[in-house]
Automatic annotation (TrEMBL), chain A:
Its main location: membrane. The gene is cbiO. It comes from Loigolactobacillus backii. This is Energy-coupling factor transporter ATPase. It comes from the Bacteria. Pfam families: ABC_tran. The keyword Membrane applies.
Length: 282, 294
């Protein structure tokens, strides 16, 4: 499969904090159509990594490494072409609106690219339909729920038809319903449009959707693996900025009580089946 | 003084007599006991925030009475004499760090008590105490609140409310937007304030795990009314009812519910994984005791 993001030997320091690097020799790649979750505790470098891919960081002396997006190497000249391939959704749903109505807001990015009106109208319509917000097209963004606001933000991103969507803690300020709504939309985009997803998150449900989880610590890439592999770390997950999945917590509690438990991580369904089968042996 | 808070036939309507009139609360009868830890749950828009704004008289009922300690608040109550109530009942709003504004942490925390007539010297002394109470080091006192991490800023904002020495602490989604470790730290701090400092705690939350772990009473709201009041175990025992109301279910209760459908039996609905493991033990084949695991 084609690598759509390819990061090699990336080193980065923020201008104010030159003694402490924010990213140290980071290497990773993402396949087209893959969903990769980036986890790590606060300050581990997750957001820095995401911003670096979108060319949002000022590059100084001593920063090094290569970032390729869709085969193009990120440079001062190519940054605008690369940004067209990437859509970003941020944490706070209230900080991302510029338009007076939902449809104006979604159109904003397209207007900036000088798109003909007719095409723009079609794209906005399609994007709002995709996030199931079409009936809210004429509403004021401020009056929407948190989940609806983030869906509009996603519509603004997909109207620009990017290849990659980066979610920077995009569900962390939402209530449980809002979180479910947003994740469902993202899952559909990945499945139906083969969208590549990079999500920076502390949410266990969000990571469960990913094909792969990358763990950052102190600016370094610590681990990379499937959710099953990473979830089996148990209590160590807390230091990685994640909760311990329920089935794993129960497995630990049972093991402490002397029950023979499965050796590897089981998801909830697997755990229920395993308990039931064991129970029948009594 | 006993700080019970009692609602009697309380109704609240926003913008009465205008085209925007909307009824947010109706027929609320409820007692929140002194020193209890009460959780209020319900959908966005169910009336939770409107309800808690009555607890410190930010809103007055449009019908019925709210009794806070020895003060009775009716629709006719004069706004002038409500300040003492707001000192006794501290309110931590959602994302309270967005209200920090002073140049140092110490000044920010001291602002509240000074506003209630406490001297500057005493207020700064309190700031020092409160910083410790919320688990921060003295060194942050002279720093700008805006140089702190999100979790630290939130603690400073909570310290600012605690500095008014309230007897009741209301928290609206105090852990929203924090990572799991930050959430755990804040809830641990709230539990300590409840247990060691005898504060009455009222928590609005979407996180059913927190309700199961910390609350001793749960109030369930729907469409501006109270639909259930009980202990967490009473409320969470009926998983189907919670699902019908589209409310969250604590992970353990949801998991136990799946097991019950498969034929497992529990004496009572388990609410934590340790309770569930204890109940599962006699229903599973045992190995020899294994004391070496962590």
């Amino acid at each position: 499969m084609a690598k759509i993001i390819d990061v090699t030997n990336l080193n980065y320091r923020y201008p104010q904090q030159t003694e402490h690097p924010a990213l140290k020799d980071v290497n990773f790649s993402v396949d087209q159509g893959e969903w990769v979750a980036i986890i790590g505790h606060n300050g581990s470098g997750k957001s820095t990594l995401a911003k670096s891919i979108d060319g949002l960081l000022p590059i100084g002396e001593g920063d090094s490494g290569t970032i390729k997006v869709g085969g193009i190497t990120l440079t001062e000249d190519s940054v605008w072409d690369i940004r067209k391939k990437i859509g970003m959704v941020f944490q706070n749903p209230d900080n991302q609106f510029v338009g007076a109505t939902v449809e104006d807001d979604v159109a904003f990015g397209l207007e900036n690219h000088g798109m003909p009106r007719e095409e723009m109208v079609t794209r906005v319509h399609e994007a709002l339909k995709r996030v199931r917000m079409l009936e809210f097209a004429k509403r004021e963004p401020a009056r929407l729920s948190g989940g609806q606001k983030q869906r509009v933000a996603i519509a603004g991103v997909i109207a620009q038809q990017p290849d990659i969507i980066i979610l920077d803690e995009a569900t962390s300020m939402l209530d449980p319903e809002g979180r479910v709504e947003v994740l469902e939309i993202v899952r559909k985009l990945k499945e139906e449009e083969n969208m590549t997803v990079l999500s920076i998150t502390h949410d266990i449900d969000e990571t469960e959707n990913a094909n792969r989880i990358i763990v950052l610590d102190d600016g370094q890439l610590q681990e990379s693996g499937t959710p099953e592999k990473i979830f089996a770390y148990g209590n160590r997950l807390i230091a990685m900025g994640l909760d311990v999945p329920y089935a794993e917590r129960l497995r630990t509690a049972l093991r402490k009580r002397g029950t023979i438990v499965p050796a590897q991580y089981l998801n909830e369904e697997g755990m229920v089946d395993w308990l039931w089968t064991s129970h029948l042996k009594m | 003084m006993v700080m019970d808070i009692t609602f009697k036939d309380v109704g609240y309507t926003y913008q009465v007599g205008t085209p925007f009139e909307s009824r947010a609360l109706h027929e609320i009868n409820l007692t929140l006991r002194d020193h209890a830890f009460t959780a209020i749950i319900g959908h966005t828009g169910s009336g939770k925030s409107t309800l808690v704004q009555h607890l410190n008289a930010l809103l007055k009922p449009t019908s019925g009475t709210v009794t806070i300690g020895d003060r009775v608040i009716t629709p006719e109550t004069n706004n002038k004499n409500l300040k003492p109530i707001r000192q006794k009942v501290g309110m931590v709003f959602q994302f309270p760090e967005s209200q920090l504004f002073e140049e140092t942490v110490a000044k920010d925390i001291a602002f509240g008590p000074m506003n209630f007539g406490v001297s500057e010297e005493e207020s700064l002394k309190r700031a020092k105490e409160m910083v410790q109470l919320v688990g921060l080091k003295d060194a942050v006192l002279e720093r700008s609140p805006f140089d702190l991490s999100g979790g630290q800023m939130r603690r400073v904002a909570i310290a600012g409310v605690l500095a008014m020495k309230p007897e009741v602490l209301i928290l609206d989604e105090p852990t929203a937007g924090l990572d799991p470790e930050g959430r755990r730290d804040i809830m641990g701090m709230v539990q300590r304030l409840h247990q060691e400092n005898q504060l009455t705690v009222i928590l609005i939350t979407h996180l059913m795990e927190d309700v199961a772990n910390y609350a001793d009473q749960v109030v369930v709201m729907e469409n501006g009314g109270v639909v259930k009041v009980g202990t967490p175990r009473e409320v969470f025992s009926n998983v189907q009812w919670l699902r019908d109301k589209q409310l969250g279910v604590p992970e353990t209760a949801a998991f136990a519910d799946q097991l019950i459908k498969k034929g497992f039996q529990f004496k009572q609905m388990p609410l934590t994984e340790t309770e569930l493991a204890d109940e599962l033990l006699p229903q599973l084949p045992q190995a020899g005791r294994n004391d070496n695991v962590e």
